[in-house]
Request: fold
Amino acid sequence: MSDDETTRVTAEREHAESDDNTETDPDTEIEEAERDHGTAANASTRSGLAASDTDHTDGSPAPNAERLQSELEAANERIAELESALASERERADDLEDRLAEKRAEVDRYVERKEAEFEERKAAATAELVADLLANVWGPLDRALDAEDPETLREGVDLTREEFRRVLAERGVEVLDPEPGAPLDRERHTVVRSVPHDEYEPGRVVDVERPGFRIDGAVEREARVFVAEE
Reply:
């Protein structure tokens, strides 16, 4: 081989080795691509954060401001509903209070009317009783006292007393004036004391200190009596 050919071959070999050295390894290219992608993503993220920061700092509403505004409006509506309900209940309470006042006034008028009617009936009953007593008791008693004969006087007084009982009985009044020897009745009689007595059995009424009376079956005053002791 001549010197010229040797020089040419050597030059071609060096040129080939130079081309081999300039070729890129595939794995290396992939790593470089991933690195470039990560760098771009980081840059995009930083750009987004910067933009977000800009949105918050330049006075634009935050992402949850609309939700808070909606909740505030709902709360205001609920408050308005409650205030309306409260006003209705107050109006209803005022109406009930007015009706109660009217009922109280009606009751007061009713009581006053009944009291007035009672007083009228009582006055009428008193007048009727007095008229009956004057006609049927007072007159016969005067005539009996005018009698000169003691026996006639006694008979007149007895008749007057019976007439008096009749007048009271017609008005629902029963005189509690037990006869001597009558059995003791604890519901009608009050024992003043026990006294020795040979005629009546122990516990029997001997005498009456003060008569009692019943009105319409209810004992208003018990008779005070003496009873035979055991």
About this structure: Helices lie at 3-22, 26-57, 65-145, 150-170. The radius of gyration is 64 Å. Residues 52 and 62 are 10 Å apart (CA to CA). Strands lie at 173-176, 189-195, 205-210, 212-215, 218-221, 223-228.
